[in-house]
Amino acid sequence: MAKLYFYYAAMNAGKSTTLLQADFNYRERGMETMLWTAAFDDRSGHGQIGSRIALSAPAATYSEDSDLFADIAAELTRRDLHCVLLDEAQFLTRDHVLQLCRVADELSIPVL
């Protein structure tokens, strides 16, 4: 069974860098990932996860009215997914968190 993981730390602790490293490790092993970030977070550019050490990657964006479960399930019809990685989790709503629980429980995809 897949799990939902939540990582937290102080600002500038390297959470985005760690997320991008996890993405790299999955892809290096031939596994598919899906990256997400908050739509209004454009510090690294819209739809970009960026770290202070100049690592970055394109990401899907979520807003308050996004249905993450439906969007991830739709992506599964196009390609296999082995992990969903989400940055800026502090902007998730309660419904988003429940949708991500469903991704882990019903789609058997780990969410970090």
Keywords:
5 strands, single chain, 112 residues, alpha/beta
Any overview of this molecule?
The chain is an alpha/beta fold. Helix content is 32%, strand content 17%. The protein has helices at 15-28, 68-76, 94-106, and strands at 33-38, 48-50, 56-58, 60-62, 83-86. A 3-stranded parallel sheet has the order 4-1-5, with helices on one face. A two-stranded antiparallel sheet has the order 2-3. Helix 2 (68-76) runs parallel beside helix 3. The mean pLDDT is 91.
Biggest sheet record: 3 strands, parallel
Number of strands: 5
Percent of residues in beta strands: 15-25%
Average pLDDT figure: 91
Work out the helicity level: 25-40%
State the helix count: 3
Order of helix and strand elements from N to C terminus = HEEEEHEH
Report the structural category: alpha/beta
Low-confidence stretches: none
Please compute the radius of gyration using only Cα atoms.
13 Å
Q: Which word captures the global form? A: globular
Brief account:
This protein is α/β, with parallel strands linked by helices and 112 residues long.
Topology:
Elements lengths: L14 H14 L4 E6 L9 E3 L5 E3 L1 E3 L5 H9 L6 E4 L7 H13 L6
Parallel strand pairs: 1-4, 1-5
Antiparallel strand pairs: 2-3
